[in-house]
Amino acid sequence: MSAENSNTQSGVVIIGAGLAGWHVIDAIRAKDKDIPITLVTADSGDRYHKPMLTMAISQNKRAADLVRATGADAATAAGVTLLANTHVTDIDATKKQLQLISALRSDPANTHYATIGYEKLVLAMGAHPIFPKSLPQDLVWHVNHIERFSELQEQLATGAQRVAIIGAGMVGTEIAEDLLKAGHEVTLIDLNNAPLSQMLPAQATARIAKAIESQGITFLGGCLVSDVTRNDDGSLQVSYAPLESANYDEAQTTQTITVDHVVASTGLTVDGKLPAAAGIEFDTRTGIVVDAPTLRTTTANIYAIGDCMSINGVACRYVAPLRAQATTIADDILGVEHSGYDHKPPMIRLKNKAISVMVTGVPRAEGNWQIKADSADELIMELLDNDDAVSAVVTIKAPATP
């Protein structure tokens, strides 16, 4: 059963009800209470703070505890038209129209199609997890969204379990500690020899590896996961091999561990379908290209914010700048004079009790890193660019002794 209808309403349309989308709504409503706003989201639109997902299990916080307001309540309070459980299938930038499809999970056969117009469109659709072929989605969790987090939490509530986390970036490393604190047996697996190795130099990451192992987390560095399969007893078998053995007989080098759950933390990617439909410049690695001062895309009347967009070739996947980005978009949409968004890389902190890691600037593992301080309790390093200017700083400290 399907239904079709057309809605010619205009105003501001926002795609995505994460932190970025709601921040844009807050910023617009702070200066204009009446302009029509429509929020389109594939989920319920509930407001919650996504960074809490990496530390909520050990704090025994349920999904309901993290939700600040339901999508329906938040939309009513903000005077917003909420189109929940709705997907945007196409953008016609010439006609300034969106094609929509919606269906409730409880009644997927009752599908509705619609067309809505916009005067200004904001893409706040975020990024979604990358699942390598070796990580089948039907066997592997991710915690990039509150609904999946809730499902995993229910599975873990029955008692101490064995969990393998694939990917030791910021999120994977934080999840590892959270699960360990909740009483689970944790194995962290990464292609690199230490956590955060794509961001920081070896001198820094070696300290991080030592700290997480001191907590009781098993770290398997320099290893490639080749397969995840279901055993007869319901457990999972994770097959992996050291990267250095790639030139040898795979059958002789492959090792396995048996766990109850596998969590993927192997990076994020942005779906390019909608940007392509709208004729927006898009980079497959970093996302939607925007003009830094205005956050306008290369297509007229369309903006982008948050995880789905990039500035000067760098993906913007941090929470701290969202309010400033949203304020700029709101001002630009409303015709309010503004000085332009001043993009500054945010301070990055690793949430880990065993070690303090603070990063500023735009870090990358390769480059001219210089040691400024090096002791058992503290390591400070600076990354110099081609002009010997400091482009990033990492400060690592041992936790204070009680």
Automatic annotation (TrEMBL):
One protein family per Pfam: Pyr_redox_2
Single GO term (MF): oxidoreductase activity
Ranges for domain FAD/NAD(P)-binding: 12-309
Keyword Nucleotide-binding assigned: no
SUPFAM superfamilies the record matches: FAD/NAD(P)-binding domain
Residues annotated as signal peptide: none
KW Flavoprotein (keyword) present: yes
Protein name: Pyridine nucleotide-disulfide oxidoreductase
Phylogenetic lineage: Bacteria, Pseudomonadati, Pseudomonadota, Gammaproteobacteria, Moraxellales
Family to which the UniProt record says this protein belongs: Belongs to the FAD-dependent oxidoreductase family.
Keywords: FAD, Flavoprotein
Cofactor(s) demanded: FAD
